[in-house]
Amino acid sequence: MFECYQTHDMNFTKDSSSTHPNCIHCVYDETLHDGQVVAVSRMCVGKQCVSYNHVFEGYGQNRICCSGKLCNVDKETASKYFVSGDAMD
């Protein structure tokens, strides 16, 4: 188990963001509207985590499940620690 960022703040900064201990997976979740990211969540979740890419014509959500200390800092880092056992549609 490890630590994940726990925030829904669009103005994310590592130094001032909350973290959650004892996580099995971290999640980086983003919502897009007209091709622009309008919301981002970083969360700690339990044993079940399913990554997905549900963006169509610039609208929808992406979720990346990752395993590693503070791996949900950003989309690129979460993708590097992507949980291979989880499917990404």
What does this molecule look like?
- The structure is a single chain.
- The chain is mostly beta strands and 89 residues long.
- It is 7% helix and 46% strand.
- The chain has a single domain, classed as CD59 (Ribbon).
- The protein contains one helix and six strands; from the N terminus they run ββββββα.
- The strands form two sheets. The protein has a four-stranded antiparallel β-sheet with strand order 4-3-6-5. A two-stranded antiparallel sheet has the order 1-2.
- A hairpin with a 2-residue loop joins β5 and β6.
- It is globular, with a radius of gyration of 12 Å.
TL;DR?
The protein has one helix spanning 75-80, and strands spanning 2-5, 19-23, 25-33, 36-45, 52-56, 59-66. With 89 residues, the chain is mainly beta.
Find the structural class using helix and strand composition.
mainly beta
Q: Taking all residues together, what is the mean pLDDT?
A: 91
CATH topology grouping? CD59
CATH class: Mainly Beta
Q: In CATH terms, what is the architecture?
A: Ribbon
Strand order of the largest sheet: 4-3-6-5
Which regions are unreliable across 5 or more consecutive residues at pLDDT < 50?
Answer: none
